[in-house]
Structures are given as C-alpha cells and as structure tokens.
Amino acid sequence: MKFEKAFIPAGFAWSSPFARWQGPLAEINSQDLAVDVTRAAFEQRSFSAEEELTGLVLGWTVPQKDIFYGAPSVAARIGAPGITGPMISQACATSVACIHAAASGIEGDDSEVTLVLTTDRTSNGPSLIYPKPSAPGGSPEVENWVLDSFARDPWAGEAMFTTAEFVARESSITREELDDATALRYAQYQNALENDREFQRRYMVPVTIPKKRGESKILDEDFGIFPTTREGLARLKPVSEGGVVTYGSQTHPADGAAGMVVTGEERARELGQDGGVVRLLASGFARLGKARMPQAPVPAARAALADAAISIADVDVIKTHNPFAVNDVYFAREMGVPLKSMNDYGSSLIFGHPQGPTGARLTAELIEELRLRGGGTGLFTGCAAGDTGAALVLRVED
C-alpha cells in the first residue's frame, strides 16, 4: 500500500533491549514491559501521552495475563486514558501490520497522532486448555502456545526450521554459505557496540526490572548474545540429519518491546528532533506456497518497492528479519544485492526474536542508520509464520 500522509517524527522510534528467553525478562508480563519502556521513551522525548496521542495500535503474539483488556489498559497506564485502538497479531509480521494500520489511519486524517506499540514474551509461554467434553474421559486438548507453534504449521504440517531446509535445498544454498552469513551478521552486530554502544543508544530504552527485595535492576543492553566464530559454527551439527541449518544459523526466541509514533507531516516536523521526519512510503505483504517461509521477504519487498515507485537500486539501507541465515542468502541472490550490504549493525539472527516487536526494533535501527547518513531511503523486510512476508519502505528527510 502506498502512503502519502504518514510520517514518524525523527527520533520517535525506539526499542527495549532484547533478552534471550528464560533470561532477565522471563517473568515480566509483556504488557508491563511495554508500559515501562513506553513511559521511559516518552520521558526521554518530553512527550505527553495524554496531551498528544489520539490513538493506539497494540501488537503482540503471545497471550499474557489480562491481555483481554490489552489496548485500553495499556493506554491508561502510559498516561493516555482517553484513547484506545486495535490489537493486532500476525506472528513475525506483527510490527509491519501495526505500522500499516496506523499509517492507513493517518491517510484518512493526518491530524491524528498514533502510538504503535509492540511487545512479546516468548519465555514461559502459556499452555492453553480447550475443553472437549466428548473426548474419552472428557480429556481436554492442550496447546503450548509458543513451543507447539514453533514445531508445526497446522496447514503446511512442517516445523519452522524445516522451511529453511526446503528453501536451502531447492536454491542449492550450502552449509558454508549459511555459516559465512551468520559470522558476517555477528561481526556487523559488533559495529552497534562500538564506542560504548553509541549506535544502539540512539534508539534503545533501558528496562527497569523490579525485584521483590532490594533495588530494581536495569537492563540496558541485549542479553544472551552468543559469541560466534566461523570455526565454532563449523563444528555444529545440523538440526536434522543431512540438513544444513544448525542452531548457530538460526535466531533464538527472546523477550522485548518496541514502539514509534505515527502522525501527519506537520505534527511530525513539530515533534521530530531538529525538525526531521521519516516519510512512510509503502508497505507490502506476500504469501508463498507451503513451507517456503524464508522466501517470502522477497515478494513482500518487491510489492512495497513497487507501491513506493522505486527499485532496489534506489534503496540506501536494507534491514531484514532473518530467523534463519537462509533468508538473507536467498534475498541477496534474488534481489541482486551483496550480502554484506544488508544489516550493517546486525539483525534478529544475532540479537534474537521476540516476534511482535522484532520488526519495530529493526525499523528503529533502519531509521537511525539513515539519519547517520544524513537521510535516504530504507527497506525493512522479513518473513512470518504461515509462509508470509511483510515489508516497509521509508525515507528519512532530515
């Protein structure tokens, strides 16, 4: 979809650190995390939620206690009790779906100021019990929301990692290529840590972790990043016999939250740091055949680029959600871009994947990378469960 009126004020896209599942955020309700991070982000930006916000889009994929009241409850807790909005869940495409919804609303009324807020906790995912009185002994059906979803797509009948194996085999992607790509992304992530994490501090908001006793703990950087070397990757066994995907060349589940403000150009220029703005150009969604998820970012990106009326050659910065290294190798081949020209500061392959907020964090990184360049055009694209892809094209004008 092409956008003409939707903008993000410069500096108004942020993310918490991401923590590997069962880490320091494992017992924090994802709504509580979203509230804490959003309050801190607004305080940093001297932004009044009650005075400024007219709407909210809340994105999540893993149910949490009290999520039934999610959007209005979160809005009230961040200081905007007079607003509400939809809750959106589209697996790993949730962030783009939320931005798409917010931007679509701005196209209808560019005086609106909408908060896009995405949050998830893959740690301690809920086990749901579905009553089934007609079963033998009245035994219910039980679903582990996180683990069962990873293990099997009910339509395609395959686990997520199997989709990467299928694409690797059909595209003749080798184990060596995947290990090379993973090592490259790890090295690029180190760029984000230089000068005391100077790049990450542009958008990252620390999390206050309450403790039952003593002082609260502050998490101000990603947790659970595994030290990666090319030699170490080569020693890992494939996840499946005869395969090429290892636990090293795929991401880890994580916990985190991310957000941004979407509004019209006039208000964006008033709010933006130094009057700068981020122009949203287009979004794109795509779906492929069964169990071919890592291919989906390509047609999604092409759809967004087409609606933005530009080509991949016009893009200055590319960020991808890559739960598998296969994604990036395939994307680079199909789009004709060097693998090393993408994800200059790392990607979800390295810092983890809380699902809902992953795309929003990568969009925040995309914006800040472009701001460091003095402006330009950026593309975010990634895959999602159900062989889906979602993409966003934007331009930084500051």
List the helices and strands and how they pair.
Layout: E1 7-9, E2 13-15, E3 19-20, H1 30-44, H2 49-52, E4 55-59, H3 70-77, E5 87-88, H4 94-108, E6 113-121, E7 127-130, E8 141-144, H5 145-151, H6 160-170, H7 175-191, H8 194-197, E9 207-209, E10 217-219, H9 230-235, E11 254-263, H10 265-271, E12 277-287, H11 297-308, E13 317-321, H12 325-335, H13 348-351, H14 358-372, E14 376-384, E15 388-397
Parallel strand pairs: 4-5, 4-6, 13-14
Antiparallel strand pairs: 1-12, 2-11, 3-11, 6-11, 7-8, 9-10, 12-15, 14-15
Describe the 3D structure.
With 398 residues, the protein is α+β, with helices and mostly antiparallel strands. It has a domain at 7-125 and 250-393: Peroxisomal Thiolase, Chain A, domain 1. It has 14 helices and 15 strands. It has helices at residues 30-44, 49-52, 70-77, 94-108, 145-151, 160-170, 175-191, 194-197, 230-235, 265-271, 297-308, 325-335, 348-351, 358-372, and strands spanning 7-9, 13-15, 19-20, 55-59, 87-88, 113-121, 127-130, 141-144, 207-209, 217-219, 254-263, 277-287, 317-321, 376-384, 388-397. Strands 2, 3, 4, 5, 6 and 11 form a 6-stranded mixed sheet that branches.
Name the descriptors.
398 residues, alpha+beta, Peroxisomal Thiolase, Chain A, domain 1, 6-stranded mixed β-sheet, 5-stranded mixed β-sheet, 14 helices, 21% strand
Radius of gyration: 20 Å
What would the principal axes of the Cα set say about the shape? globular
User: Helical stretch count?
Assistant: 14
State the distance separating the first and last CA atoms. 24 Å
Structural class: alpha+beta
- Strand tally is 15
